[in-house]
Amino acid sequence: MLPYNNGSLPIEVSEFLLNCFVRSPTWQLWLSLPLSLLFFLAMGANATLLITIWLEVSLHEPMYYLLSLLSLLDMVLCLTVIPKVLAIFWFDLRPISFSACFLQMFIMNSFLPMESCTFLAMAYDRYVAICKPLHYPSIITDQFVAKAVVFILARNTFLTAPIPIISARLHYCGKNIIRNCICASLSVSKLSCDNVALNRIYQLIIAWTLLGSDLILIFFSYTCILRAVLRLKAKGTAAKALSTCGSHFILILFFNTILLVFVFTHMAKKKVSPDIPILLNVLHHVIPAAFNPIVYGVRTQEIKQGIWKLLKRGG
Fold it and tell me: What is its membrane topology (predicted)?
């Protein structure tokens, strides 16, 4: 779709059209059902977790504050992406304004690294708890959480903000159809009339720097935890320590596995259907959000007790 003025010259576009799964329109109906269920599950489970931690005084501890931050990030990511995707599936509301598109791009590019950085802070919390238990109360304090939150917000906002800013400053005078369900920066920048090499290089460097460094530090923390656990000689202590860290590690592994699969399928796009990376990109914004609070609720006794107390209050 080429917008022209009366002089037959291309004009700047004011909105984009999100075209996803156009090759398989039946996907939209079938995907909308599990996607809507995952969305409501994610919103409900994270809201329940936040309310439980807020109302239960025994959960007012650094580890649960970090978990609250993770839930908030998950809810914002879900609300930013999934309602628009469902609106496309159900009502064919494909248009998205210029400003809304780049706002969505900013939130996606900044909040996903924030989530990765939150996992890193939680891994450090578990490392101190198991490897330096006597120093835990003096190291992992409310002040530590406050500083960690400021660092998470500042680092990822500052380093990822140039991506949507650079993309928004490009000239879009040609096609305005985005071959994606969301305003992914690479999908949007393809529509620009300008040279987008700088945008792509910067995004690649930032993505691998932020997510890669977080992943390396997380695995280093859990390697130290595993070594410390194997040295524990008290009966049942090692099993209890591994159980405490199990939920953290499962969620971190799941978060990064989906991301890595998306990266590899995007790189091998000539060998796979172009709809697969689009689908994985959408699912990466809802599946971790849906399972994060469930895994913590199942594996953390204090949270289960807090939710049970909350339900009894409501009854």
Answer: Multi-pass membrane protein
Question: Which neighbouring-strand residues pair with 10?
Answer: 4
Q: How far apart are CA 151 and CA 153, in angstroms?
A: 6
State residue 21's pLDDT score. Answer: 74
How close are the terminal C-alpha atoms of the chain, in Å? 56
Q: How far apart are CA 255 and CA 249, in angstroms?
A: 10
Torsion of CA 51, 54, 60, 62, to 10 degrees: 70
Query: pTM to 2 decimals?
Result: 0.88
Q: In sequence order, what are the residues at sequence separation of 6 or more whose Cβ sits closer than 8 angstroms to the Cβ of residue 125?
A: 62, 63, 66, 140
Whether residue 71 is predicted with pLDDT greater than 90 in this model: the reply is yes
* Residue 53 to residue 47: CA distance in whole angstroms: 10
At the fourth CATH level, which superfamily is domain 15-314? Rhodopsin 7-helix transmembrane proteins (1.20.1070.10)
DSSP state of 86: H
Q: Can you state the percent helix, strand and coil of the chain, rounding each to 5?
A: 75, 5, 20
What distances in angstroms separate CA 31 from CA 75, 95, 158, 229, 301, one per listed residue? 20, 20, 35, 43, 34
Instruction: Tell whether the model's pLDDT for residue 10 goes beyond 70.
Output: no
Which of 243-247, 257-261, 282-286 is most confident? Answer: 282-286
The Cα–Cα gap between 74 and 130 comes to 27
